[in-house]
Amino acid sequence: MTALEIASLVVEVISWIALGTGLVILACAGVFRLVDGSWEPVDLVVVDGDGGASARWFAEDEFWDRSLKPAERERVDDAEEHRAFFRRGDAGRMRFERVHPGLKVTGMLGFVLTGVGVLALIASFVLLFLH
Known about the structure:
Blueprint (H helix, E strand, L loop, with lengths): L2 H34 L2 E11 L2 E8 L2 E6 L2 H6 L5 E7 L2 E6 L5 H30 L1
């Protein structure tokens, strides 16, 4: 086998693995996004009380209140008002980012692997015509 044939074989294997894996991960990210639902912005107020800090916000014509987790409390600074997001249809669920960090990582990994697969596929075609 010549070096060109070996390179062609390696690039072909990389293209199939990266494309297949990337497209499956992108499909999973799409399903995760659908399950996660829509999150709408809301202004919330952080109130320090006897039981710890709590967040209060008004959404979907109702007043909502829940205590902050320690990690959330560390995230908010000394200001009382903050931007948060509530889930449409379930305004009692609140978080500080619109898109879940795990969903961001899954989507980015899917895009990177798919991009590598497409580049390897193009390189495979180029090597095919050079052969």
